[in-house]
Amino acid sequence: MIRKVLVANRGEIAVRIVRSCREMDILTVAVYSDADRKALHVLYADEAFHIGPSPSVDSYLNIDNIMRAARLSGADAIHPGYGFLSENPEFPSRCQKEGIIFIGPPPTAISTMGDKITARRTMINAGVPVVPGAEGKITSEAEAFEVINQIGLPVMIKASAGGGGKGMRLVSKEGEIKSALRSASSEARTAFGDDSVFIEKYIESPHHIEFQILADSHGNVIQLFERECSIQRRHQKIIEETPSPFLSSERRIQMGEAAVAAARAVDYQGAGTVEFIVDKDQNYYFLEMNTRLQVEHPITERVVGVDLVKEQINIANGNALQLKQEDLKQHGHAIECRVYAEDPANNFMPAPGLVTHIDIPYGVGVRVDGSIYEGFEIPLYYDPLIAKLIVWGKDRQDALERSRRALREFKIAGVKNNLLFLERILLSEGFAGGDYTTHYIEENRDFLMQEDRCEDHCEDIVIITAFMEYLQKVKKASPKEMTAIKNNWKDYSRVRSVLKL
Ligand code: ADP
Ligand code: ADP
Ligand code: MG
Predict the structure, then answer these.
(1) Are residues 136 and 120 in the same domain?
(2) pTM of this structure
């Protein structure tokens, strides 16, 4: 029985895992880097261990340091969260060796699914449809041309080790093949230490629809329906919803069965997600399986009525799933908006910095999983995801109206963020009508990039509150520091205009 869990992660997901552990009466251990000494996950856990300098390679990706923290704390299990070491098969192998339970799938399932080429082959054998494309790794330019001749343009050149939207290139013209091949493999080498690439057909106007899986060590595998994740920028999701407004009930059943088959093919255990790309005629193709908890898991929790972290822990404890496929239903509708410290106007560049003010929305149907507070300095070293707004409604319209209301109440000052951008997506006609593909953001750039809030001056209140804090800081600062603060403070010109200075 798991009594104490070390959470090998940071940010909102670390806080979220600690919360479920606490409800299960399980002690928690946080780990942190230099930049995260004052991070929320450190404050929430029962204990915290420093694991190294700020860069992730020296801390959150450092298996030795994390194992040391586990031994020192007496943790009997490790939860990897998402990102970082969660899909590195070495990590569960190391846990096995040291007699610590890894809350996740076996290393073989991770390595099979982690390599997209191997995963494709495994899925073909299991009878799960994959995107038409090359059998294996592309080893020369000539081979690339040959494959592309067969399947026809446009194609995607993709890194076998890819993740987080990295190492992926769209090729629409023959002249682009060589440079795309080179840039995809060099990006893959830098990001994943593996430059293998493969080629698959580019599906036009597609939907990204994924299925949540749970599998125990007794051979039970269930699927907890889909998440529609087609609102993306740079191949990364920013808004997700369930049920998908696009999928027919018939297709939902078929895809759910395919997802279960995919999980069975690798003897999966734990929580996982099978991602599909779906064309306009609802033909679906396996994209990849993420062998971990997904960022957008809370919308499934809300609509299906489960706590996926608790399920993961129960499975890791060797218990059989209590949930039965035939009892599962989708109740109402849930939408998640990912709040990032980034600048939508500047190609979504990360915008780390000091959070001077934050208003978190409350009220019926609202859940916020976050990792920031007033006075927290968002480090530049990690993913700029700072909060997730998860909203439930009795139907899609209800969830949409409630999401807009909650986004309106959400205020963050001090750092650039995408709150306004998210609000504009929810206000846009295409999204409201449930009619969108993965190209939605690109295609609606002009509307989405408008800066006005189309409403009152609540933004100004945030700015003024932040300005008061700024003044306090200035009072204590030396003239030299004062100049530095002024120069660094991005909202200074806004304050001047709001206060008519
Ligand atoms: P999700 O569907 O859960 O959003 P993503 O592919 O966007 O999945 O990845 C979730 C998180 O993990 C993001 O923070 C992303 O940057 C990170 N991530 C995913 N794959 C990798 C990888 N191979 N290496 C490093 N980080 C990754
Ligand atoms: P990652 O591991 O980086 O998450 P995925 O294979 O899951 O990579 O793809 C991420 C996104 O890229 C998809 O959600 C989709 O928007 C786009 N994409 C990937 N493959 C294709 C394809 N063959 N055709 C069209 N879009 C694709
Ligand atoms: Mg993916």
Answers:
(1) no
(2) 0.90
